[in-house]
Amino acid sequence: MSTIGIIGAGAIGSAFAKALASKGLEAIIANSRGPASLAGLARE
């Protein structure tokens, strides 16, 4: 299985990560504000 990396957790990056997750695909997402700011997105 491949892992997809996403740089940017704005509207597009978040939507892309959610779409991947809905298909059972793993994504790694990063942003300039650090991992704590991504906690809500990770829970979704």
Task: Describe the structure in brief.
By secondary structure, this protein is α+β, with helices and mostly antiparallel strands. It has helices at 11-22, 39-43; strands spanning 3-7, 26-30.
Characterization of the model:
The protein is α+β, with helices and mostly antiparallel strands and 44 residues long. The protein has one domain. 39% of the residues lie in helices and 23% in strands. The protein is built from two helices and two strands, in the order βαβα. It has helices at residues 11-22, 39-43; strands at 3-7, 26-30. Strands 1-2 form a two-stranded parallel sheet. Strand 1 (3-7), helix 1 (11-22) and strand 2 (26-30) form a beta-alpha-beta unit. It is globular, with a radius of gyration of 10 Å.
Which word captures the global form?
globular
Structural class category:
alpha+beta
Number of domains: 1
Give the C-alpha Rg: 10 Å
Low-confidence stretches: none
Strand elements, count: 2
Overall mean pLDDT:
91
User: What does the largest sheet look like?
Assistant: 2 strands, parallel
C-alpha end-to-end distance: 21 Å
- Contiguous helical run count: 2
Any chance you could write out the topology, listing elements then pairs?
Blueprint: E1 3-7, H1 11-22, E2 26-30, H2 39-43
Parallel strand pairs: 1-2
Task: List the main descriptive attributes of the protein structure presented here.
single chain, alpha+beta
